[in-house]
Amino acid sequence: xxxxxQQLINGLTLGSIYGLIAIGYTMVYGIVGMINFAHGxxxxxxxxxxIITFSLLGAVGITWVPLAILLVLIVSMFFxxxxxxxxxxxxxxxxxxxxxxxxxxxxxxxSIALQxxxxxxxxxxxxxxxxxxxGNIPLMEANGxxxxxxxxQIIIIVLTIALMAIFSLIxxxxxxxxxxxxxxxxxxxxxxxxxxxxxxxSLTFVMGAALAAVAGVMVTMYYGVIDFxxxxxxxxxxxxxxxxxxxxxxxxxxxxxxxxxxxxxFWSAYFSIEYKDVAVFGILVVVLIxxxxxxxxxxxxxxx
Amino acid sequence: xxRAAEGTLLQVEHxxxxxxxxxxxxxxxxxxxxxxxxxxxxxxxxxxxxxFNCLTGFYKPTHGRLSLHRxxxxxxxxxxxxxxxxxxxxxxxxFQNIRLFPRMSVLENLMVAQHNRLMVASGYTFLGLFGxxxxxxxxxxxxxxxxxxxxxxxxxxxxxxxxxSLPYGGQxxxxxxxxxxxxxVLLCLDEPAAGLNPRESGELSELLVAIRDxxxxxxxxxxxxxxEHDMSVVMRISDHVVVLDYGRKISDGSAEEVRGDxxxxxxxxxxxEDEELPxxxxxxxxxxxxxxxx
Lengths: 304, 294
Prior knowledge:
The structure holds two protein chains of two kinds. In chain A, a hairpin with a 2-residue loop joins β2 and β3 (145-150). The model of chain A has no long low-confidence stretch (mean pLDDT 88). Chain A has helices at residues 2-32, 39-60, 65-92, 101-122, 151-173, 175-185, 187-192, 197-223, 230-245, 250-270, 276-290, and strands spanning 127-128, 136-142, 145-150, 225-226. By secondary structure, chain A is mostly helical. Chain A contains eleven helices and four strands. Chain A starts with a helix and ends in a 14-residue tail after the last helix. Helices cover 40% and strands 22% of the residues of chain B. Chain B has helices at residues 48-55, 82-89, 106-112, 115-121, 126-129, 133-152, 168-181, 198-212, 231-237, 255-260, 262-269, 279-292, and strands spanning 8-19, 22-33, 37-41, 63-70, 73-76, 91-93, 186-190, 223-227, 240-245, 248-253. Chain A binds chain B through residues 166, 169-170, 174-176, 178-179, 181-182, 185-186, 188-197, 298, and chain B through 56, 58, 82-83, 85-87, 92-93, 95, 99-104, 108, 111-116, 118-119, 122, 124-125, 128-129, 178-179, 182.
């Protein structure tokens, strides 16, 4: 029971991170109908910008942890969002209206380009980071096993829930969210009603990238090491999460992220840690066979 | 460019649209005026919808100029981007087939149409999120306009239903209301009465007349451009009718004038006298005519 609770906490932490990345996949898919395979790299860039900002802040002498984390988040969200915007502008917008596969190929190219760009400017070595937030709260103890939740895990989970709430609110209540949903359903009509479709799509990429940046910063603090290749696996898992939840659905991405995190944590704990990725992608296969629209996805209606 | 007469809202000059070898619209010129309903009629394939598509930025015309006169400014529609046509020139349109956002509520469909004002007022979302007073006021005004139109088209009780679940007539009316929520100066309607029963199309006619006379635009009269096959609707409410056939304008005038125009009758009912034969056939006939016919 104690072991189970501990894994639950670990799984939720991991799931939060996957959920944050998955939102970017699902929002972009919803609005332009393509999988942005460069999104994992956007997350990696977020992590790098985070680690750079941390060391800059350390050099300047800002060491008060809450302020440092807040500043890092803001800086990383901003610059990662710029990357997200640029990717859309360079790799996808010129291909809009082209055949369906074109932006997909462009996305894979972008992903390789971004990996190499970071590898060249930051080096291929693993970047370590000193733990910023230490300490944990013991929750219970029995049979000599102590269940802990670290402060960092609390920060990750709470921040994720808060961000997801804000984003759900933006999508459901604001003019921007309405125009995003309108573009999702009928881009031409939205444009005829005065919605700037290009800008709405850009903003969608910006929002997705900002969330991925948060995930990147959190991962850096959680694991303490990053390299230029972390975007690949995390991106694939977040994509799996988006598909599991039902791609195009925002609550689906959050749910899918949490489920993938939990599956990974429990599989590592009870079966084998080597096969955790197999378990995650096995789930993807099963979902695609039996529930092609995911848990919360809507069945695709063929457009005429 | 000739000066537009007083009250001219839309001036279409020498508009041509070519698709490969097909000249869908051939040198069409006409005007639409504020406070008038301009009917555009013609047999199938006459180029009516193509004219609309040029007006709303779907097609770049091969030739010609489309100028919209609003508040002393001239907007050249053929050079504007799609969303700017709605936002700056204030031209709204509906489609032959219904194009609501089916998975958004009726109210949200109307709110999307007021997107620009709300975007600006919400400081591009961030102020809106924190509930800035200017945004709340803008949102209240937007909701008021929605409420007005919901009442006007009789859909108030369905405000929170999905637009796709409305009955057909309701969807048609909602489309017009949504276009009106962009607060246009020119409303282009592509067969709004298609599929409506006689009672519904009667109500539609009244609604269009009210829109022309300023209902929902703070009493400001607007221009309506109407493509319609239902002649009872067109002839009753149009102040001015333009007839197209094979991409050319064949008649232009009041409903009575157009009704009596022999060109129009011919276009709709076919030639009264024998069809003219192509010249090579005529030549053939005269050459061999004597031999085959005793």
